[in-house]
Structures are given as structure tokens and as C-alpha cells.
Amino acid sequence: MSTTEQTGAARIDHVVVPGTFDPVTLGHMDVISRTRKLFPCVTVAVAASVNKRGRGTAFTLEERVEMLRQALAEEGLSDVEVLPFTGLLVDFAREQGAGAVVKGLRAMTDFEYELQQADLNYRLDSELESIFVMSAPQYGYISSSVVRQIASLGSDVSTFVPPNVVEALRHRFS
Ligand code: PNS
User: Fold this and answer.
1) CA–CA distance, 73 with 96 (Å, rounded to integer)
2) 103 is catalytic
3) Marked catalytic residue, from 37, 52, 53, 123
4) Interval between CA 68 and ligand 1 midpoint (Å)
5) Euclidean distance between the first and final Cα of the chain, in Å?
6) What does the pLDDT look like over 119-169, one tens digit per residue?
7) Which of 1, 19, 41, 47: disulfide with 14, CB 3.0–4.6 Å?
8) Residue 101's closest CA among 114, 113, 112, 111?
9) Local structure of residue 136 (DSSP, 8 states)
10) Are 169 and 151 in contact (CB under 8 A)?
11) Cα separation values, 38 from 13, 42, 89, 131, 133, Å
């Protein structure tokens, strides 16, 4: 008898990696690629229009989706689907048939925010699992907002983001 038959729990093959990705960083890419090693089917879900502080994004939803698709293709991860979403993450995950949400955790400072989101998502859909992947140490302090700030001041961000994003930032802030 398999473990699944013993517990009655369905195995999770499809997961969603959500985020604002404004823009995608090498830290995000690391989390997505490690998630792809763990699960056969990965969908990156790009949230519509507002960031954590309720402000608009630097890049449009279409631009953020396209940057991710290109960066993943360049890393040989074309089988990772990238889709935009509006509304609740739990609804999007259900529509996609995904069983879990995967997010990256950097320093302890991420923990409270992520715990709050995982708790909310659990209250909205207790069938949807929240899974956390620890960031590789070299990406621990990279964030989209730090990248935007450095790029807007005209500095090099090539150690923080994929090459196509370096170009996109150069256009945005030149
Ligand atoms: O990159 P971020 O800002 O950490 O991503 C946050 C995101 C997009 C995953 C989160 O804001 C989200 O899930 N937004 C969709 C709206 C929603 O479902 N809210 C309730 C749970 S927090």
C-alpha cells in the first residue's frame, strides 16, 4: 500500500510561486529553479498592479510577465509557466489546480510578513499548502525594491538580476 493510500492525502505535483516580481531578481530565479527541482509542474503567478505598500509598480504586469518568461527561457526553464493574476492568490491556485504556494524566505525579516500571508491563505483555503524555500545566502539581501533604487541611481545591477532585466532597467531609468 502506498503512503498516499495509507493517509488518503493526494500528492502535490503542481505548485504556484507567486510574487510581484517588479522586477524579477536572481533571488527569485533561484527560488523558482529550486522549486522546479522539487515539483514537476510549476506556475509562476505574477500579481497585478500594487506592491506590498499599496503603490503602483515600476513595470506593467505585461512587462513583468515577459521579463520572467525571457529570464526563465535563458536559464533553460521554459517548462515553468508564467501567468498574470488579479484577485486572490488562493482562487488563482485553485483555478490552476495547484496544491501549494511556494515562497522564498531570506532573512528573519521576511518571516513575519510571510507567516501572515500564509495564515491568511490558510483561512481562505485550508487545502492549499504554504511551502517555504530558503534563499541561497548570496541572494539574502537582494530585493526588487533595492534593485530599483540602485538602478534608478544609475548603478550597475548585473549581479542582482538576469541580463534581460539589466537592459529593461537601463531603459526604464535612462
Ligand atoms: O512579491 P511579493 O510582494 O512578496 O508578493 C506578494 C503576493 C503577490 C504573493 C501577495 O500580495 C498576494 O498573494 N496577493 C494577491 C492577493 C491575495 O491573495 N491576498 C491575500 C493573501 S496575502
Assistant:
1) 21
2) no
3) 52
4) 17
5) 62
6) 999 999 999 999 999 989 999 889 999 999 999 999 999 999 999 999 999
7) 41
8) 114
9) P
10) yes
11) 9, 9, 21, 11, 10
